[in-house]
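It is worth pausing here to work through a concrete case rather than discussing structure prediction in the abstract. The textbook approach is simple: state the sequence, then state the predicted structure, then interpret. We follow exactly that order.
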Amino acid sequence: MTESDGRLVVVATPIGNLGDLSPRAAQTLIDADLVAAEDTRRSRVLLDHVGASTPLESYHEHNEERRTGPLLDRIAAGSTVALVTDAGTPGVSDPGYRLVHAAVERGLTVESVPGPVAAIQALVLSGLPMDRFAVEGFLPRKASARATRLAGLAQDPRTLVFYVSPHRAAEDLSAMAEAFGCRSAALARELTKRYEEVWRGTLVELAERASGGVRGEVTVVVAGAPVTEHRAVGDAELADRVRGLIATGLPKKQAIAEVAQAAEVPKKRVYQAVLDSAGPR
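Step two, the predicted structure:
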């Protein structure tokens, strides 16, 4: 091999059903010189399933810092390294970003074999808007940090997707309900597996249902914040608002700026409205 032959291949693996592994992904695992895996025991089952005898090396959040460099050296020397995680697409709330970023920085070839992502599967099944969404991954364990994160998302109009540990599902859903209110949501568990199930309802309803316990891998999809419709404001009202602020002692320039921002109109329009309201001189 020459140095140009080396490459990092990010391989998406099934999130439950082994039948979802694509033929291209299977062939990549067979042909690779090395598979960097989050859990070598679980990945060995997958490799055995496709008849691959490719060597495995662990690559997870606790050793990725020290193993990134040696893996890049192997790729630079001409090896093909396939990166996999326990399930789904590496780098999406799983190890992988550090290796991909470092490979790109070093100018090495990076390829991706697409496949399952739990967040997308849950989003599709949720029945909630899919035109704009954000994958937020896992929430912080500490209540204060979790509340801060959710507060920052409370006004986000996009559909939000969270990964949730089953033993913290009720707690996380209650925190979401407190931060977001009684929004529509869906809880998807055991996606693509035999006991796949989707609960749909409000966050309050899902939190109550989860209080009885949830089993399996869990993904929660929450409707985005409702978009506030701004009432059109006429020029006369704009001028009145400016005069009201000036009466409180605010400088005219600042009053115009604040009214323009609140009404979501150009400052030039507010300024002209004030001039027009003064009448002919």
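Step three, interpretation. DSSP finds eleven helices and ten strands in the chain. Strands lie at 7-11, 34-37, 56-58, 80-84, 109-113, 133-138, 159-164, 184-189, 197-202, 218-222.
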